[in-house]
Amino acid sequence: MKDASELRVLVVEDAGSDRLLIDAALTEQLDGSPVVLWAETVPEAVRQLAGDPIDVVLLDLGLPDTTGLGTIAALRAADADVPIVVVTGTAGEADRRLAVRLGVDDVIGKDQLEHRHHPLGHSIRNAVDRPRPEVDRRTSPATIGPGSSIHIAVLDPENRADTDLDRVVAEVAERNGWRLTLSRTTTMDGLSDVSAAGGGPDLLIVDIDVTEPRGLATLRQARLRMPRCEIIVASDTHPAVMALAALDLGAADVLLRELMDGPSVERAILFALRRRRREIELSSAADKDALTGLPSRGVVLEHLEISMRNIETGQSDCCTVVFMGLDGLSQVNAQFGHRVGDHVLRVVAGRMTHVARRGDLLAHLGGCEFVLVLDDFDRTRALDVVERLVDAVGSPIAIDADYRVLVGVRAGMASTDMPIEPTELLDAADRDLYQLARQQAVNEGRQVSGRE
């Protein structure tokens, strides 16, 4: 980390007593005198971020103009890369995990700052040292300015026909000077039609209730149908644990319907669009995942199209897709920060690569999801590969000289000996993974009940 005297720290906090507490903690734990800037509201923080570069943001989640996790989206919309450490007195464990999933580097409690050996200095060092890709902001497509053409689609499976939502989205577009195309559909087939028209939308708003199993199932299907599109969920309720489930299934943000005013929707849209533009910017020409170097979802679909043609022409007998999710990665991110989580993902990708055969396709779909395509392997033969993957991934991963972490892998599979749509095969493998995880949760619940 650069010398503390060279650090520029932006503290977003409105309570005077907490400002004094944070100032004292910075002085105590950072050698030297960092440049400390202060903001009491989100607009003030955004203006500070637009000025000279900021090395780290210390963010309170309870501000006068916005509260809770929407504050994170507001700053991420202003600067997708600035390190953020949340310093809060209100977040529960689920909220803390959700904050990390939304892109903060660490979450610490204000009560911890009153202890002699508090973690603020350690959190700041980890956040500042976490590698971040360099971009040329002068030419970055992550900037979405006036005149940009933005296509936003709404998937409304309950057919609410919410005109208030449409109005708010239109107002956001007008305020930012965008040329807006707004589409609505109530079905997955309609979503496919929307996706096929003009290259598909830039953003999808899925109008569901995340507490309902069918709502999460709709989100999962939408993500598979539109793999290159950012998704915002509008939900009647969204307790933190269910919002985490929605984020795990590919949502960029989850908004509570009754609180969806113009500023909150605008922050969520900007955050999602800029994150997607940035992903495009950082993708290699070979369509590889920027973090792991593995092929991304688009390559998987192209490969499966070839696999289906080979089955149709008799050049191949079958094809199996293994859809994998990592267990334990969220806990690693929450405990050690995203820098360590990224390291774990790269190690896992390397281990999986050693297990895969030369002709297999291993891809990283983002987050904790991987896919392995096995041509000419039926489900029985694929089980042997899955066992090797589980063994390889399950070994301890060193994060420094003293600490090791453990993650596991769950796998769902789908096989076909006849040509079908690539997305259908991928979706079937994902459903198999989801059903296995659900059955595991049921079994664990029964064991707990039995002990009680």
Task: Based on the model shown, name its key terms.
single chain; 452 residues; alpha/beta; Rossmann fold; five-stranded parallel β-sheet; 19% strand
Oligomer: single chain
* Count of helix runs: 15
Instruction: Briefly note the structural class of the backbone.
Output: alpha/beta
The tally of strands reads: 16
- Could you report the average pLDDT, rounded to the nearest whole number? 80
- What is the terminal-to-terminal distance? 50 Å
CATH fold field value of the largest domain: Alpha-Beta Plaits
Strand order of the largest sheet: 2-1-3-4-5
Rg result: 23 Å
User: Spans of 5+ residues with little confidence (pLDDT < 50)?
Assistant: 133-142
> CATH H-level name of the largest domain... which superfamily?
Reverse transcriptase/Diguanylate cyclase domain
Helix content: 40-55%
Sheet having the most strands = 5 strands, parallel
How many structural domains in the coordinates?
3
Using the coordinates above, name the CATH class of the largest domain.
Alpha Beta
CATH architecture of the largest domain: 2-Layer Sandwich
Overall 3D form? globular
Percentage of β-strand residues? 15-25%
Structural account:
The protein is an alpha/beta fold and 452 residues long. It has 3 domains: 4-129, Response regulator (Rossmann fold, 3-Layer(aba) Sandwich); 149-282, 3-Layer(aba) Sandwich (Rossmann fold); 297-451, Alpha-Beta Plaits (2-Layer Sandwich), CATH 3.30.70.270. Helices cover 45% and strands 19% of the residues. It contains 15 helices and 16 strands. The strands form 4 sheets. Strands 2-1-3-4-5 form a 5-stranded parallel β-sheet, with helices on both faces. It has a 5-stranded parallel β-sheet with strand order 7-6-8-9-10, sandwiched between helices. It has a 4-stranded antiparallel β-sheet with strand order 12-13-11-16, with helices on both faces. A hairpin with a 5-residue loop joins β14 (397-398) and β15. α3 (70-78) crosses α10, α4 runs parallel beside α9 and α12 runs antiparallel to α13. It is globular. Residues 133-142 have low confidence and may be disordered.
